[in-house]
UniProtKB/TrEMBL annotation, chains A, B:
Alphabetized PANTHER family for the sequence: THIAMINE-MONOPHOSPHATE KINASE
Lineage, opening ranks: Bacteria, Pseudomonadati, Pseudomonadota, Alphaproteobacteria, Hyphomicrobiales
Name of this protein: Thiamine-monophosphate kinase
Group of enzyme by EC: transferase
Family matches, as Pfam families: AIRS (PF00586), AIRS_C (PF02769)
Amino acid sequence: MNESDLIARYFAPLAGPEGLGLTDDAAVLTPPPGCDLVVTADAMVAGTHFFAEDPPDAIAAKALGVNLSDLAAKAAEPLGYLLSLALPPDWTEAFLAEFSRGLGEAGRAAGIGLLGGDTVATSGPLTLSITALGAVPEGKMIRRSGARPGDLLYVSGTIGDAALGLALRRAEILRGAPPPWAGAHAAELIDRYLRPRPRLALTPALRAGASAAMDVSDGLIGDIRAMMRASGAAAEVDLELIPFSAPARAALAADPSLLDVTLTGGDDYEIVCAIPPDSAEKFEVLASAAQVAVTRIGVVAARESFRERDGTARHFARDRFSHV
Amino acid sequence: MNESDLIARYFAPLAGPEGLGLTDDAAVLTPPPGCDLVVTADAMVAGTHFFAEDPPDAIAAKALGVNLSDLAAKAAEPLGYLLSLALPPDWTEAFLAEFSRGLGEAGRAAGIGLLGGDTVATSGPLTLSITALGAVPEGKMIRRSGARPGDLLYVSGTIGDAALGLALRRAEILRGAPPPWAGAHAAELIDRYLRPRPRLALTPALRAGASAAMDVSDGLIGDIRAMMRASGAAAEVDLELIPFSAPARAALAADPSLLDVTLTGGDDYEIVCAIPPDSAEKFEVLASAAQVAVTRIGVVAARESFRERDGTARHFARDRFSHV
């Protein structure tokens, strides 16, 4: 099967009209009038960002999902995406069939099609890069840099599930046995790791009130710090307010040392944002209408503090995941 | 050096204002009014698309150049680009310094900046994917599919230099000795392989008259066939009209069997296009004004033929390079 046949069989069916059936040099799309374009790219490598043994449809959905999560953090509506795929020597058609099925489903869930890309051979591990395009009303992209002292800090969903899921998945694959803290919810946590749920539904709430936003991909603590650095401010976070799921709470109860994993492990693909106090009610109402849980975890201030329940400061030796 | 430091040192200086210093989740750009967006992505892997020993600045310039060549073929003006870079275990800062210098120069030559991207680690070979964005007046993108019988077929520049350059480079690296046909122009041919020159200057000429266009990346014969397939037509090509450079002519004189290499080897990054006869004069005048040589090599017809000087038909066993 040559490159053209492979594209025609597995990827052309995912192309929207702008993708021209993936038979041209480029895609063409008319940007929505009065909008700015929001553009992001993320790469994933087997063995670094996922396990080669992960389900192919989940690998694809994750590669797209992490990019859609960036768009969601900017309150952008997705327009389309491009995929660069480097296939290792042992790729199979069965892999590509499942991979493209997962990619198509994830794209359809976000209402977008494949615009183009490239498929190449590599002697190394499976490597993917996706570029996603989105749109926001002109001048309205929510940046990381707009947080101001006094703004409230919110986070969507729950934190740490995917990092715990990764630890469970790693134990399953590399050691063949679950860690001692794995409970009845292991499969749920692993699923959170495998299949990010980009928070595109939060867009109306963010547009109504956020002064700054960012997606939580590399660890909540480090990502909050990155947003605060961009804003020239600092975060005061009440650690006890950070939302955990029932599975994560059970794991933390079994092994309290996992707290650092949940707060710095990354792969959450939730949104952390700063909301000026007079917009907080509207933000909460719109988030609730979108059925996205949001939790106030602190406030933007002049000096950083991460406080425990008893008021003592907590320090993080390693605050986020670095991909290099 | 962590991911943020690496981006700050080597890539943030290449970012245009839309890239927000590469410190946000995404770039934001206001599309030019009245324009469509043209988007393309190409990936390159060390050992497949280039040699790991190639100069780092040339690797970078080529990765961007092959994408700009796609935009040039669509008569699109470049707006910006994103880079996904997977670094192998032996990457060095010296490599990144040269790589980012070459990327910056290639971007500046096209008048564009870096919009964003991702840097990750791989256990495999150096892998790059670039997505390039461009703009064309609304509805005016030149597709592969618009060629009609009677249109004249043109190609820009000269064909085969890069394929011969690749053969020379391969001999140099893998065998440590030049092939028997390598002449005084070997360095020139290798340079054509290492440093594509995207034909962005041809945009006014293409907009004035082309019914279809495509960049020649995978071999002239196969690329002409791809454009004709998209157009539901066929090409009649006079092989003796295909333009060769003096270095390529010298190589072909020394070893006539290299003709297939020049016509099917790829990496030319020239433009092949179809021009209705009544637009041909304007097309030629505007190409000449842009200082891009264009050569008429045949005509769009109902049945394919690639004819030698004496009128005999030539068949190509393998018509293009496939990357999978």
